[in-house]
Amino acid sequence: LNVSRRRDSTAAVPASFAALAIVVTAIGVWRPPLPGHDVVRQLDREFRQLLPHLPRTGVVGYLAPSEGSDVADEQRLFYAAQFSLAPLVIVRRQEPEFVIVPRGHAVQDDPRLAGLFVSSTTSAGHRVYRRLTR
Amino acid sequence: MAAIGLGLPVLCVWLALRGRLPASAAMRAGLAIAGGLGAAGSVATVLLVLIGRTDRMFVAVDALLWCSLTGAAFLSTRRRSVPVAPMERPRRRRWASAVFAVLACVNVAMLITGYIRAPHGAWDAWAIWNLRARFLFRVEDWHEAVSAALVATHPDYPLLLPLNIARLWAWHGGEAAWVPALAAFLFGVATVLVVMGAARDSAADGSVGGLALLAAGPWIWEVLSQCADIPLGLFFAATLALMTNGIRRADASLVACAGVASSFAAWTKNEGLLFVVIVAVVVLLVGADRMPRWRALAAWLAGALPVLLVVAWYKLSIAPANDLAQPLADAWAKLMDPSRHFLVVKTAIAAAAPWWIAAAGAWLIAALVLRRRWDATAIRIAAVVLLMLAGYFVVYVVTTQSLEWHVNTSLSRLSVQLWPSAVLALLVAYSGAAATPMVPPSTGVR
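^ Those are the sequences you sent over. The predicted structure of the assembly is below.
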């Protein structure tokens, strides 16, 4: 009898977790936790197009966004460039010989690109700049 | 080939555990996956340092090593007596098993479709963990993968997870996106098996642990992310399961295995270092049932030391400084500032997703319902979880980052790390595992 009573009182444990697990699973199916479109795979493909125009190893510059650009989008582009182009080390500086300018950056009046010329442009709009003299 | 590279270490640990751990097959399978992946990552570290890169030579030596170890484990198993499984009590609450089975299938389907949608996982996975794996796989000299120039991608983070991925890519002969996804899936499955295996009464009791894991939405969704928090949570839970079993049975070899598992945690993420310290303190202070404290600590240390030495070497001589490093005086000043404590609590409450509030609420209710069944084993596990939470709280208070940003971006992942251990404590209390000897005395396990 004692055992029966004990079992009855502990029945709440599996019941509560089961109820919660059912709700969580239903939500997971209804609203998947990760985005439906694979941005990273697309960016990976885009940045790989730059590989023939970059050295095999070493440090490559990356033009940080000018003020007013979407920070999250810029961060994603920067990390995607690093993810795609490893083992190149991508740094947010313009001193290296090669500098990546991600798409969407208005470069016409950017003084940070002084002394650099466009080496290549991909269909996605990403560009590689190269220092004129070295 | 990647399947062989994955399977060999898991098989090796499975064989090594045969006869030593007469717990359920679920526990043994979970520990085999955890131990196999942990050992593979640790051995790969040594090979990488010796060979310099993950090339064909690396794969050849790795294969030779794991074939030899698996063969040795097989031969030693043949000489070892296998204990008779303890009598199971009558099964109860079969409905829990049925519900768990259905939910597990639905969640596996959700994970597969999630992989198809986003094969590279969440942001931190591709920006940190899988990126490091790419570096380790692509570079001529592995030091380039942890260069200080890569400061934006946390090159100080431990390498067990990325090395596992790079190792399997080397076996496969290319960078397949399914490799990190499969590893993440296996770490998740192993966690479920280890937690479920902690229940000794019946499979139905184990299902309660499985249901509790699935009840925390962020936990199961984190499997999709491919980050290091699920592996870390697995090594936490494996350590605690092995430690409590070893101490209860006065089996130093199991306590040593717990040491190995905790060292894998330290080689997976920086939080694992805190875990190692806390486990040592708990073993020393909370005490042991049938094993002297010093003996338990010595056995644990013997298991943990080899990989901990690797971690210490990496941290002290290779890895750049962590972004949370700061002068002690600065940290102390922050710790003495009550407003920062208040801000952590306030931000954490705001940041806790409804899912974590619901899961923690269910856990607390269950703990209250089972209040008379909490024994030393369950309390010891819960003590580790509470101390880890306290440690995370202190890290938040003294953080060098924006406090709100730090809490908001990491609270859920830290909870993911500790949830399996919290469920483990609850399940031990629920199933009365501590009251039931793991092995009948007559079986005489050596």
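Chain A has a mean pLDDT of 82. Residues 82 and 90 of chain A are 6 Å apart (CA to CA).

Shout if you want it in another format.
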